[in-house]
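Hey, does this match?
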Amino acid sequence: MTTLSTPRGHHALAASIVFTTLATFITAVRIFTRTFLVKQMGADDYVILVSLAFSWAFFGLMIGEVYHGMGEHYIDIPPATLKAQMIYFWASVPIYQTSLISTKMSILLQYKRVFSTPRMRLACWILIGFLGLYGTWTILSAWFNCVPLAKFWDPTVPGFCFDKKALWFSNSAIHIVTDILILIYPMPVLKSLQLPKRQKYALMAVFALGGFVLITSVLRLKSIFVISNSDDPTYDNVGAAAWSAVECNVAIICACLPGTRAFLSKLLPHIFSTRSNGYRSKTTAPSRIGRSALTGNSQVLASVVGGRDRSSRYDHDLEALSPSGSFNSYTKEPLNEKFAGITVTTDVTLETTSHSKIAVNDDTGSTKELVKKQSF
């Protein structure tokens, strides 16, 4: 018996196919960018591959559920088919948890790499440790939800089972809390950056993409509430299964998008260019020669770009931030070596009007001094 021809089973499977494929594509772009453009794979990149692998495993188990009656009414499913569906369902829960926990680990490892301030690194390690302990519990409790295991798919077997409703709701609540923490973690550091407001808000928006994961977590919690109070679980489980697939893959997509910036900059340089005007100012370059003064208007175009030095082709790490988020501009070391995470570019355009030939000749020294003073 299959339900691929019925709307409910087919819709759940379609949602899983769409989001799993999209997550795979975005992850492939991230890995290509980190491997061939940035040329620096990190721990967060490897962990996201683990998360994607478990997302595909979840998709495979959903196929098994659909082929064995998910979406059909409980009373219309033969006992043997129902048992097979429950076995697939039992295996899908810890697989879902593993994928989601791995994605959150990847995001925190990315934070730890990008924001190298001591306070931020400590905060990341604390949450990573918590996710490690919580993840171990939630995965093991899902695998060993019943003792013996067969009691999960066959209630007639004597034994013990955890309260599924309490377990599902507590796990969902913790996931929502950790989503909120991951969302707000980088905001104080980003807010303290000495950047133009437009660039600062754009950077904060990139890291706020995790808000979509929070939305899907809340919607999944609603679907769990429906199935936990249902008298027809095989029919009502479609919503929870579909939202679980969406949540896993949306989390992967949001974790991967910041790492695709270098790829998008090459593909669409006019839209995703890393150069942008930070401020403009007009100055007057005074002459050193009495009345034959040289007057002129100069424009200083400054841009601050997160990332490693372009010559090393690393991606945007912002590793040179001080604990307060300011630039360590007092250093005597070369800019590209010290500011491994920030590239500051200043373009100076000088328009001059000369009243004498000697003033034009003296302009060379004045211009050089202006550039020297205005360059970072």
